[in-house]
Every structure is written in structure tokens, then in C-alpha cells.
């Protein structure tokens, strides 16, 4: 690869200062200390044995190597090389320069097609060689972000996988340094096509790509101590400030720049970035995003954010925007803005969210439907939407300290998000339905997970979240360490150093051992999920005598090294009945166990009984089978009847939803019909 000009490779100033005490890494969201939020992320957290640790190891060993290959094979990196060539030959065009729009209104580039999930060869942009949709750069940036968080795990220099990631990041950063225009602009599609900048913001994804670049730069800086991409991001952000601050030039049709600018403010201390994020938040809802051809609701540009009560339009856009809204509210202390986001979150979770934590019930818009419009077979539940939801909830948790956000993050993580990736880590779902029929055929929603997509937003998005999972486990507030998610881990905050040992989510037993504690009393807050109906907590085998109820159970005392806190959550399998207003699943039940939603897959049904013929019996037994089927964890047996065969109960087998489609790809369903009166 070409090396960049020397002026561009100079390391940036390090405004955030040194990274803190040994072993500390700032994670994906780092509110400044003075912000009036109630919680702070932990600087020291890591995953140990357990399911999430397995996911993170798989990410390093299988998923990220795949991404590195795909970014070359799909043309993403070559697009940047083409931008370098174009930059050598041309000055940036201005808005009034001539430019031919060759992408069509949907923004999916020369590949054509309205829906983004298609796979297979695509034609290059005529006369240029550019491949793929206009936002191809964002796949590179998500992968770089994942690498930044992954390199924070301290596996260098002995691990060859980590070394490969580090050298990839260095090579791609050099490419991006070289592709960046002298004024800071950087977008391979617009540099290669020669189209004028910022003239069709509803679909151009220019600031969307910029946002992902900024997030990658922040991750590489925080996680790997590498400031080179941060310097690129700062030049690009400065360019955006020059172009947009104090003006009404338009808004990017796909949010994420808001939360990215807030994070860059946190990383650099440059207030202009937060101000621009605040401006973009304030300006949305006034028609400035332009005509998307899909209506203003699709772009969340239909009404000002402070007055909006419900989520509408394209889900990923809506929820990335909410992450930015919450970031801006957290940093500015504006209560009205935060309260509006809380209000929409409550509405979304109560009326526009699937049991798996997924969002989006309309394929045509990848969007939200009406309240309680939640058909299981038509669930869109884009993987990126689960990630955006998780990120938004985390920000609200930091700003409010309310356990409901951690409860929901858990539901999203183990179900809607977890199902998006195959057990082997190299195949992905873009759409995550709650029912899959035998004869399913749909271009934008293939029956099985795919290795990659023409619109590959989801796979590298999965990778950046998994690489950073340890940062979402716990927070500190005042003198109290809050543990939100239970998994094998090491957590240090509020003066306490804890080792968490558990087989969660397979078991509800969690052991927290104090490794270090100060003389003074400290609080330890344990989240009791809403689904745990009988929870026990003991300290050094001494049971808590006060009742333990959902929310945070706070133990406040002087701790000593060696103290062991034991938490027993009730993971007995349970029936879940739908809200009566969800017409599509009226008369059905689902099975849950702890944080896991279960599903019934054809592959497990005994005697070849057809899935659609099974009807759950009244009071049907929920029996657990400790055995695993082909690597599938903890199955559950229930009593069912077979349609047309009265009086002959059969056993139906359920598996965790996140593990479906790892075998023969036959039908699956979460919601099962039950016999009347059960
Ligand atoms: Zn996606």
C-alpha cells in the first residue's frame, strides 16, 4: 500500500491525555465527568469464561478474518484506492458543478434494486470501477471500530490474529489518509463519481459514513492507543463544522453523525463537535433532510424531536438518532430532550417491540409499524436495529440509572441480536423473523444466514458490538458499583474489584468474589431482572433477609477481599402470553427461560411431527433437558397435541431462539398456538 504524505501521518495531539491506570480502557460511550448523567461506564472490565466470552473469541477467530477478506472481495477497499486516484487528478467539485446522478433515488448505487439484502455480483458504477452502494465506506469503518475494541483486549503481541488486525488497521488508515481531500472531505463514492457533495443528503450517506469513520477513530484511539485515524476524523469533523455549523444546509438522511460527533467531543474536548451534534438534533423535524421519496416520517423528519411521542419510519435511522439525542441531552443537561427520548423508548418497548427485543414490522420501509402491529412471520427486526436499540438503551441507562434499560438490553442481546450470527461466526441474518415457514421465498429475506450482503451493514456492525461487550456489563454511580449483566467477567469500579463467575444464561447462579476493596463502605448493586420471580442473594452464605425484588438490590457495607456474594436468579422455564392487542399472535404462547426466548424448530420435533400441526396443551409441562442437541444449549420439552389427532399428547422440543438455523434450515416458530382455555 502507498504510504501517506508525511504531513498526514503526524500523530495527533492527545487531548484526552493518557489512558488512565494500567488495564483501563475507555469504552464506546464516555460521558465527560461533568455531565449531569448519573452513571459512568467502568474503565476496567473484561470478559472471562462464559457465553459472551465465547462470542468475543469467535469474533476474533472467525468473524473478523471474514470481514477483512470481504472488504477486499466486495470492493470496499478498492473504492478507496479509486478515490485516491481521483484525488490526484481533480479538485473537489462544488455544489453548483455538473454531476450525473447514476445511483438512482434509493442510494443503493449501480447495484440497483431497492431492497438491500441481495447477494451476488454487482456491476460497477459506469466508467469508474466503483462497486456497491454509496455507503460502502461504512463497512470499512465498522470493521476498523471492531478492531479498535478488539485490540484493547491486550492479546498483542503474541496472538497472530491480533497482529493481523493491527496491520490491517494500519494499512487501511494509510489509505484513508491518502484518500482524504485537503479540506478534510472523505467519501469514496462522491470522490470517484465526481458528483457534487452534499446535494442529495437524503440518500447520500455522506455524514453517515463520516459518523462511522469518527466512531472507528475513537475506538482505535481508546482501544489501541492509535491516534492516526483520529487525526483523519478530526480533519473531517472540522470540515463538517465549516460546512454546516450555524446553517440550514440540510441533514443527512441516515443519522449516526450526531452520536459520533458527541463521542468525538468527548475524545477531543472540542466543543464545536458537540454544538454541531446539537444543531443536527434540533434541526430534525423541519423538512431539512430533503425528499427521500419515502416520506418525511421515514427519515424522522416529520416533527421536532422534543414533541414526538413514538418511533416512526426506518428503524435503524430512528434508533441511531435516539442515541445521538441521548448523548446530546447527557452532555448539555437538557431535561426536556432526555425526557422526550425516554417517552419514545417507553412507547417503543411497550407497543413496537417483538418478544426477542427486535424492532421493525414493515419490510417495505425496514420500518416501524403501527402500535401492536407485530406479526411474527413478517418481523423485519434488522440486525442493525437490534444494535442501535442496545446502544440507545445503554445511553439511557447511563443518563437515568433505571434498571428497565438493562433488562431490555439483555433481551436484545441474547435474542434479537444473538440470533443474527451463526454458531460458527461466519454467517449472518439481516432480517430476524419470529417465524419461518417451509415454503418461504423472499428476495430481501433469504431463509438461511448468508456470508455477506450487497448491503453489508449488519455483519461488521455485529463485530463492533461483540468486540466491545465488556463495556456494557456494569457502571459506577457515586460510591456504588452497579452490575447490570451477568457473565464471566472482571469488573472494577467505585473502589471495588470483582470477579464474576457464572454459567449464565444457562444457569441462574452468579458468584461475585471481592478481590479488592477500600476500608470505607461501598455499595454493590445487583440487577434483578423483571422475569426472576424468586430471587435469593447471600453474602458469605448469609442470606439477605430483606425481600429481593426486580430492579437493583443494593448491598452497602465494608467489603473485604474474599467476600463472596451469591445471586440466584429464577431461570425456571415459563410461559409467556402476548398482549391481547397483538392480533397476529392472539391464541398463542411462547416459552422463555431466564433471559432467553425459546423457539420450536422442525429439526427437533420427534417422530417428524410437522411444526405447524403442534398445539400446546393447557398447563403443559415445561421440562428441561440438560442434554444438548448438536451444540444447541439447554433444550426444553413441552406437552403438545397434534392437530387432527385428539387425545394423543406428544412432546415438543424448544431451543434458544438465538441458536435457530444452525442445522437444516427447516421451519421455526416462537409463538405456538395453544388449545382454547389454556
Ligand atoms: Zn444492517
Describe this structure in words.
This protein is α+β, with helices and mostly antiparallel strands and 678 residues long. Helix content is 33%, strand content 16%. The chain has 16 helices and 22 strands. The chain has helices spanning 6-9, 51-73, 76-89, 136-151, 160-179, 188-193, 201-204, 206-224, 228-244, 257-268, 271-283, 315-332, 335-351, 383-400, 403-417, 458-467; strands at 40-41, 44-47, 435-436, 474-477, 480-483, 489-493, 496-502, 509-516, 522-528, 536-539, 542-543, 551-557, 564-568, 574-576, 588-593, 596-601, 614-616, 622-625, 635-642, 645-656, 668-669, 672-673. Strands 3, 14, 15, 16, 17, 18, 19, 20, 21 and 22 form a 10-stranded antiparallel beta sheet that branches. Strands 2-6-7-8-13-10-11 form a 7-stranded antiparallel beta sheet. Strands 1-4-5-9-12 form a 5-stranded mixed beta sheet. Strand 4 (474-477) and strand 5 (480-483) form a beta hairpin. Helix 8 (206-224) runs antiparallel to helix 9. The longest helix is centred in the N-terminal third of the chain and has 23 residues, at 51-73. 54% of the residues are buried. The model is unreliable at 1-22 and 94-119 (pLDDT under 50). Bound molecules: zinc ion (ZN). Zinc ion binds at residues 382-384, 430, 457-458, 461.
